[in-house]
Amino acid sequence: xxSNMIENDIANHELSNVGIERINWAATDMPVLNSIKKRFDKxxxxxxxxxxxxxxxxxETANLMITLQSGGANVLLCxxxxxxxxxxxxxxxxxxxxxxxxxxxxxxNDTYYKHIKSxxxxxxxxxxxxxxxxxxxxxxxxxxxSTSIVGGTEETTTGVIxxxxxxxxxxxxxxxxxxxxxxxxxxxxxxxxxxxxxLDGITRATNILWSGRKVVIAxxxxxxxxxxxxxxxxxxxxxxxxxxxxxxxxAIMDGFSVMPMEEASTIGDIFITxxxxxxxxxxxxxxxxxxxxxxxxxxxxNVEINIPGLQDISSSSKVTRQYIEQFTVRDKxxxxxxxxxxxxxxxxxxxxxxxxxxxxxxxxLCVEHIIKFSEKLSISVHDVPKEIDEEIGRLKxxxxxxxxxxxxxxxxxxxxxxxxxx
Length: 422
Ligand code: ADE
Known about the structure:
Blueprint: E1 9-10, H1 16-27, H2 31-43, E2 50-55, H3 59-70, E3 74-79, H4 87-95, E4 100-103, H5 109-120, E5 126-129, H6 133-140, H7 142-145, E6 151-154, H8 157-168, E7 176-178, H9 183-206, E8 214-218, H10 222-233, E9 237-241, H11 245-253, E10 257-258, H12 261-264, E11 270-273, H13 283-288, E12 293-297, H14 307-313, E13 314-321, E14 324-329, E15 332-337, H15 343-346, H16 353-373, E16 381-383, H17 386-399, H18 409-415
Parallel strand pairs: 1-4, 2-3, 2-5, 3-4, 5-6, 6-7, 7-16, 8-9, 8-11, 9-10, 11-12, 12-15
Antiparallel strand pairs: 13-14, 14-15
Helix pairs in contact: 1-3, 1-4, 2-3, 2-16, 3-16, 5-6, 9-10, 9-16, 16-17
The chain binds adenine.
Adenine binds next to helix 3 and helix 9.
């Protein structure tokens, strides 16, 4: 399909050949999504449906978009973060697949929102979000944008938090499935995906040796756990900061040190935020830090580190290397990575394909579910149907060549009874 036939706004159309090869490479590690694509190709369950997607524009996302298109959908894509777009992928989507894509790596805030509005101008039936920016634009102007929408999906923890707040204020206007809540999503993507890709992003940005470093991780949710475990695997001494007592206990019993950020900030060499909140690292912490400290964020938004505060307390700053801005704070150098945006997608390529396989299989099957059951879905934030979650787990295992046991009739009966005791 010629790129001039579809609307788009991308950095460089000439990158499409590189993008095509990289998208194909990712597909080789996404067998579950591929099997869904094959079925979608035959059954066309999304025929006539328009989907507006706001996701990180990566090779894995491209494979999801192609799968939805195989199902008969008209798909439009914009970025869910100004720094996460892979420009070659955007070019390939436009040129090779005829998918309207609006995403440029490094786009400014106005362009970011202009791109969101461009996808919405298609009058979508389904929205697919990663962080709820699409939903937020729609809910700020429902008359203009919501008329054709029957449902949506949300990929990430931060997006689900925002949606629940919207729903809690009775302002949600269509049903949304929280893909993040599927076990086959967060137990793998958030933990192993974020764990590996965060260290990958920091390594690519800095080329540091992890061994022997004191790594402070703010937040011990699934992402924080993954990062902590991978940093330990590379020989770092890991300190966790938390506000939730149960999570703090888990971190201790997993063998990590736990302390307040005020204390950790005087000790750490590398700081990584994964809280989903704001100002996990604030100016008082940055004043405490050692000369040469490195700070990176792996949470969805760039608010976990108080960057305006860092600018205020520093006398100067300079870019010392791509993705490293070095601030002079009193007599010390503090290194902020990737403008405090999610370092795994800004400085590396995001999670590996193999783990996105399950997350995006959930996305594809949830879209199909919404189309099938749109009239029955209440206007609220829904969990992924258990059948979909379990099916993806089964499919992933089978693609790995792993089989598992089945309960016998006797075991099933026992598990449903109360009579057998001591
Ligand atoms: N989120 C984290 N990693 C990702 C990837 N590789 N593609 C799309 N979204 C992601």
